[in-house]
From TrEMBL, chain A:
Organism encoding this protein: Mizuhopecten yessoensis (Japanese scallop)
Protein name per Swiss-Prot or TrEMBL: Rho GTPase-activating protein 20
SUPFAM superfamilies, alphabetized: GTPase activation domain, GAP (SSF48350)
A molecular function (GO) term: GTPase activator activity
UniProt-listed Pfam families: RhoGAP
Compositional bias per record (Low complexity), positions renumbered to this chain: 418-429
UniProtKB/TrEMBL annotation, chain B:
Source organism: Mizuhopecten yessoensis (Japanese scallop)
Keyword GTP-binding recorded: yes
Record-level Gene Ontology MF annotations: GTP binding; GTPase activity
InterPro entries: P-loop_NTPase, Small_GTP-bd, Small_GTPase, Small_GTPase_Rho
Pfam families reported in the protein's UniProt record: Ras
Record GO biological process: small GTPase-mediated signal transduction
Listed Gene3D superfamilies: P-loop containing nucleotide triphosphate hydrolases (3.40.50.300)
Domain of life: Eukaryota
Protein name: Ras-like GTP-binding protein RhoL
Keywords tagged on the record: GTP-binding, Nucleotide-binding
Length: 503, 189
């Protein structure tokens, strides 16, 4: 493939690639014109690769405009199909060239309709729905178009994960580029704000396979030879209704009831239930490559909530061979040797302790003599899995199947799902490694963790668990909350590795 | 006499990261935020006195990104004085004045706009470095672009910021006077 050949840039010298490298890029022409051959123009890919390699530690990249006359000069040369020696220019100038390309695209990279579609994503309440909507949009694009989008967002994603070095936080970055990406929003400050919000969503969650698509992430990782390590953490909460409210019903009756109520907001039965956390959702893990996915899904009916996947990322920019070690590399290395950001652990522990304490209290209350009248449902609470054997079995099966590695399951039913979870989520997610049991098989090479990204929003809704196996390794863990009576909380950690990491 | 009814309006332009928002914040007496992110559009108002009279200066602070040109258009037509800023230790931002900002302002304001050239972050100036822009170069550029003045400023020194906005007021008043006399001339006929 032309793209791949280009990846190995400098060392390839056969003629066909030589002529491709002199392809002309039309600034100001519609994108379809530039990708009419079905692939991105090579010089465009090259400049993006160069930025991805060298620019990730440049402070304020994409914010400072660079040298205006150099920018014009590069644009001119690229338009004429002449080679540009990127080393002669500073990063800001090159980033400006990229921005200029985006800016000059009539209607922008997404086009008017695309911009509207993406902006409407913001109105979706749940992160999972947002991911899905974005995914749907992105997959509807031409392949080369998708590739361009993933190169750009991959670069920005890598940047924000090095923001301790380059000072570009997601907010700063998305504001700086929103104008060139969302043309329809550039004139009005309010709209810019909106555009920068969707940009933040897109940039921060670039690593979420269910959003950008595995293929696109892989494309970025392979093309720029960036190692990306993603840990997606899913939190599932299965809530069983409180025994006092539920009339005694049979198992079938229970499922029927849920089927009927699906989508209807029920008043929550737990005192501290967060208002936005509606427990009545169908747990329906979607699995792209799993033929059993559908059947599993249809049978997994239980009130559940799922949190946003927490993504901890470890893009390791520039493990690039054939290249003299640069200052950036050294910087990069020094940063990678630093311990990952901490500070959340103590808070995490204290919150967890508090939560456990509360769960214990509640479990005492539930099991206490006051609750003499036990419904068929309530009777079984406290015995993990017995009340919904079918469901639990499925659940276990699901976990076991998708992991391929070790699974630790020790969920017990517990106190009703509780608001805590919504704010606790961020805490849990901050250091997901602490959640992993020691038995976790460690097959992963040393990771260059530069930063953990935290999704603090809790999502309640429809679940989407993309567990398509990554190319190198995938671990899945289920962690547990102990002594729960009324609901079950499980965590899934899905790891993805893209691109080349040190091996 | 308080002349608050007729505020003097000015717009800050210049490349990203030169410190436009910092100047504005410093003028109205606020500390610039440590990790301030890119501005999209802000509006500030501060007071200053010139020749014994109190004036309110309203400051438009649009985004410095070249991308947001369409947003800046409205501020150009609304303001009386344009402050063109560059960072003395960033030659690219200095070059941008002549090659980007001046043409943009001229395009929307015509050639008769009142422009003040402002060199920012003078505390970071390093005379030995090539990328540093000297005072002479700044003054030369100011003459070339026919600016109403050349000012050097740093947020480290509040007086230097204040002088900039005093200059804004004097320029605006001069401009108003000119218009008035022109108007009188026409009406006399």
């Amino acid at each position: 493939m032309a793209m791949l050949r280009n990846v190995f840039g400098g060392c390839v010298s056969d003629r066909s690639s030589e002529s491709m490298r002199h392809q002309k890029i039309k600034f100001g022409a519609p994108l379809s014109h530039n990708i009419k051959n079905g692939y991105l123009p090579v010089p465009l890919v090259e400049i993006l690769i160069y930025i991805a390699h060298e620019g990730m530690n440049t402070a304020d990249l994409f914010r400072r405009p660079g040298n205006p006359s150099d920018t014009r000069h590069i644009v001119k040369r690229m338009t004429e199909g002449k080679p540009v020696i990127y080393q002669n220019y500073n990063m800001y100038t090159l980033a400006s060239v990229v921005k200029k390309f985006l800016l000059r695209l009539p209607d922008g990279i997404f086009g008017q309709n695309g911009e509207e579609t993406l902006l409407s994503v913001l109105s979706l309440g749940h992160k999972m729905e947002q991911y899905e909507a974005v995914h749907e949009y992105i997959t509807s694009l031409q392949q080369a178009h998708q590739q361009l989008v993933s190169l750009l967002f991959g670069i920005w994603f890598t940047m924000i994960n090095n923001c301790d070095i380059n000072f570009m936080t997601t907010e700063a970055l998305s504001r700086s580029v929103a104008g060139s990406v969302f043309h329809s929003c550039a004139a009005d400050p309010g709209k810019v704000e909106k555009a920068s919000r969707i940009m933040q969503l897109l940039i921060e969650n670039f690593g979420v396979a269910s959003m950008f698509g595995q293929q696109n992430i892989e494309y970025f990782a392979d093309t720029t030879r960036t190692g990306i390590h993603i840990r997606e953490k899913f939190r599932y909460e299965f809530q069983y209704l409180s025994e006092e409210i539920l009339p005694p019903i049979s198992e079938e009756g229970f499922y029927e009831m849920h089927a009927q109520r699906e989508g209807v907001h029920e008043p929550s039965h737990t005192p501290e239930h967060s208002p936005e956390m509606d427990p009545k959702y169908l747990l329906c893990p979607r699995r792209d490559d799993d033929e059993d996915g559908d059947s599993t899904c249809s049978r997994l009916m239980a009130a559940s909530t799922i949190s946003a996947p927490e993504v901890s990322l470890a893009p390791s920019p520039g493990n690039i061979g054939k290249r003299p070690k640069s200052l950036e590399d050294n910087l990069n290395e020094s940063s990678s040797t630093e311990p990952p950001p901490k500070g959340s652990l103590s808070r995490f522990n204290s919150v967890k302790r508090k939560q456990l304490e509360r769960l214990r209290q509640r479990s005492d209350w539930f099991l206490g003599p006051a609750n003499g009248q036990k419904s068929s449902n309530g009777q079984k609470s406290g015995h993990s899995g017995t009340s919904f054997p079918q469901y639990t079995r499925e659940h276990e099966r699901l976990v076991a199947k998708s992991s391929g590695n070790s699974v630790t399951k020790a969920s017990s039913e517990g106190a009703a799902l509780d608001v805590m979870s919504s704010d606790v989520d961020s805490v849990f997610s901050e250091d997901s490694r602490s959640e992993s049991p020691a038995s976790e098989p460690i097959r992963t090479p040393p990771i260059r963790v530069t930063r953990d990204i935290i999704h603090s929003d809790t999502i309640v809704d429809t679940p989407m668990m993309d567990m398509s196996a990554s190319r190198e390794s995938q671990d899945l863990n289920m962690d547990e909350d102990e002594e729960m009576v009324d609901s079950e909380v499980c965590y899934f950690v899905v790891e993805h590795k893209y691109g080349h990491t040190e091996s | 006499m308080v002349n608050a009814s007729k505020p003097v309006s000015c717009t800050l332009v210049g490349d990203g990261m030169v410190g436009k928002t910092s100047i504005a914040l410093s003028f109205i007496g606020k500390q610039a935020e440590e990790n301030y992110v890119a501005t999209v559009f802000e509006n500030y108002a501060g007071g200053t006195s010139v020749a014994g009279e109190q004036y309110t200066v309203s400051i438009y602070d649009p985004a410095g990104k070249h991308d947001y040109a369409s947003m800046r258009v409205c501020t150009y037509t609304d303001c009386e004085v344009i402050l063109m800023c560059y960072n003395v230790s960033d030659r690219d931002s200095f070059d941008s004045i002549a090659s980007f900002w001046l043409p943009e302002v001229r395009k929307f304001r015509g050639t008769k706009s009142t422009v003040i050239l402002v060199a920012t972050q003078t505390d970071t100036r390093n005379p030995d470095s090539d990328s540093s822009v000297s005072t002479e170069e700044g003054e030369k550029l100011a003459r070339e672009i026919n600016a109403g003045g050349y000012m050097e400023t740093t947020t480290q020194n509040y007086d230097s910021v204040k002088t900039v906005f005093e200059k804004v007021v004097t320029c605006a008043l001069k401009c108003r006077k000119k218009k008035k006399t022109l108007f009188k001339k026409i009406s006399r006929r």
